[in-house]
From TrEMBL:
It comes from the Bacteria. PANTHER family: TRANSPORT PERMEASE PROTEIN, TRANSPORT PERMEASE YVFS-RELATED. This is YhgE/Pip domain-containing protein. The chain crosses the membrane at residues 21-38, 529-548, 568-590, 596-618, 627-646, 685-702, 768-790, 796-818. It comes from Corynebacterium accolens. The keyword Plastid does not apply.
Amino acid sequence: MITSWKLFLQDFVRLWRTPQVWVILIGLMITPALYSWVNVSGFWDPYGNTEHLKVAVVNEDKGASSDLTGDIDVGGQMMEKLHNNDKLGWQFMDRGEAEHAVKSGDVFASIIVPEDFSSDFVSLFEGTYSQPTLEYQVNEKINAIAPKVTDSGSSTLETTISATFNENVAKSVATELRNSGGDLSDKINSTAGNTANSFSETADTVANSRNSLADVNATIEGARPTIAQARKSLGSVQTTIDDAQQALNQVTALTDQVQKEVTSFADDATAAYIQGTTALADGTANANANIGSVTGKLNGALNRVDAATDGAQGILGQADKAIDQLAGVAALPALPPEVSQQINQSVSELRDRNNQNRAVLGELDSLNSDTNATLDSLNKTSELLNSMASQARDDSHGLRDDVANGLPKLNSALSNVSATAGRLSASLNSQKALVGQTDGLLGGVDEQLTHAQEVVKRFSVDLDRVEEGLRSARTDVIALSNTATNNTVLKSVNGLDTDHVSSFLSSPAEMESHAVFPVTHYGSGMSSLFINLTLWIGAFMLLIIFRAEVDPQGRRDLTINKAYFARFLLLGFFAIAQALIVSIGNLVIGVEHVSATAYVLTSVFISLCYLSITYGLVSTFGHVGRGIAVVLAFIQIPGASGLYPIEMTPDFFRAVHPFLPFTYGIDAMRETVGGFYGTHYIRDIAALTGMAAIAYLMGTFLRRGLSNVTMLVNDELAKGGLVINEQVHLIGSRYRFTDLLYASADREGYQKSLDTKWMTARKNYSQLMKLTIAIGLALVLALVICSRFMQDQKAIFFGIACLVALIAVATICSLEYVKQSIAHDNRLADLSDEEIQQHLQHQRRNPNQYRLEDVQSDKHAEISSTPQSQGDTTDKPADGGEESGKGDKS
């Protein structure tokens, strides 16, 4: 901070010791103020001089006459009033002169009263009304504001005409009323009694009607419960119908299913009949054949069994004899006992076997008997099968006939059932809809009855009031009759002042205006805009005259923050002087204010805020920042509601309105001119403070990274040889810290990396440049064409076009910056190891200090005086243009 103040004092002393410079500085402080003073004085009271605004008036009205108004000449009366009206410079002439004067610009507008103007007015009383019209012509080429003023004059003229006509009609009516006062007295006396009686009879009738309304109300009240019960019953009916419909739907579905089953049964029965008949015939035949075969075989078997049985009986008889003989042998004494015993044993065994065989023969005889019985049974079965097959055939024929005859009838009956169910369901649907409609109708009736009750109640109250009014009117008529008898009121009518009555009716109401925060003169109201423009222009002029950069010569400990604040102090001194001069001058001219101190101090504060914004732009972006300051100046005039309310401007300006410094600067000055309200003034000052702080930070921080861009623009401008550039003093080392480390560690790899970057940039640079320019121009042209077809969106298209142009310029600058950065980095590869180490040490120790090298200034001057050829943009830059390499790339 001490260093900044020392630097400020040194710079100020240098200026003080150069008297010739103060001539320019005094002019620099006064010249911006002249803008405000001249405009405030010039626009001090323009609407107070409208009598010099010439408007031609032509009267061709021939007048008219009617029974009510008598002779009337609206045009002539209007001319008389305009002769005494000095709001505009009325010029009275004929039609031809007026048309020529409007076209030539001798008058701004003309108003012609046609010949049938009065006739159109009185046509109102004749039943053939025709709208009276004036012919109004305005020359809008002469001036943008004059037509609006003359429009106001034409509106005033229209009001004058209406007031004149009303006054004539009112005067005629008042005169007629005054003249008919005596006749009116006789009429009142003759009709007072009849009227009073009529009022009395009407009042009695109204009373009877009011009593009848009470009965109507009671009837309505009794009908509403019945309607409620009916609606409840309809709900039950609705439920019953729903249940019935559901049951009918089930009947229909069941009928359809039965029909399908019957059809299936018929098909199955027919097929079964055919199959059963065939199977029965085949089965019977097969059974009979089998029975016959079995019977034959059984007969043969029985015969063979009988023969075998007979043979076996004979053999058994012979065996018995042989056994007896063998038993006789065993009884012989000659046989030894052992042999005799064995023979007896054999005889015993033979007898057992023979008995067993005889038992088997007995069983065979029994089987034979059973077989014979079976044969008889089979024969009977065959006969029974034949009989049953014949009976089955007869029964199946009958069943087939029954199915063929009965199923169509059953299907027909089921179809009738389904159709009947459908018709009944449709009928129920109709009944359901009818029930719903009936319920809605009853609801509407109930609602109408409710409204009717309310209407009846209100009507009863109204009738009560009517009755009261009629009886009061009867009393008034009687009183009026008495008054008419005394002739006091009619005397007043006979003495009516027709002029006062007509004057009142021509303008029955007047508007009282009360200004809130009054500002008497137009110039005082516009002074807020003019003083803000003055302060912005003044700050811009300071940055045209003074250098934004501080000369760091001899100050090796100077940082960017100290230098920036020191220069801001110097510029702020002159900005304060500008604000004091313009604000005090406005007060001397007569600009209204609620506090001279607040007016002056607010001007000083706004001036410092505008200086901070413009200084931040110029310090950060150089010539580009000055361009941005100019663009902001002309955008803020319509966008900050300085002339017209922001609500009257296009969407684009309404969108940017909250972000413009003028918005808050103008509002703050208006508070000091018209009066303070709430926290509006604090809000405006706070907004300006925030914008100024952001700009100040931008000037100190962004400048470190954008200084190389600024130098790039300066170098390109210097090639033309016509532009004087301000030397840009850089901060820290001229090279990026990472590049220094890379080059120090691997110089060969660093060089290869640069070669690769350069080949890529050289290959794409020209194409990208052409593409950016082509796309930018195409988009701007498209926006211009769109604005021609959408006139109400012109401001938005203008804003988009500005944005496209800024993006295109930024892209071009970025491409050029990349190319120049590669050239700058290429010079790093040519440094010796010792020089690289020096840069590294400086980067570590003093990253925020200016780099002081007198050689750079010399080389910059050399570059500014020797323009380079345009062909240098396509070849790889060598070691020329040292200035392009200055700056911190980080």
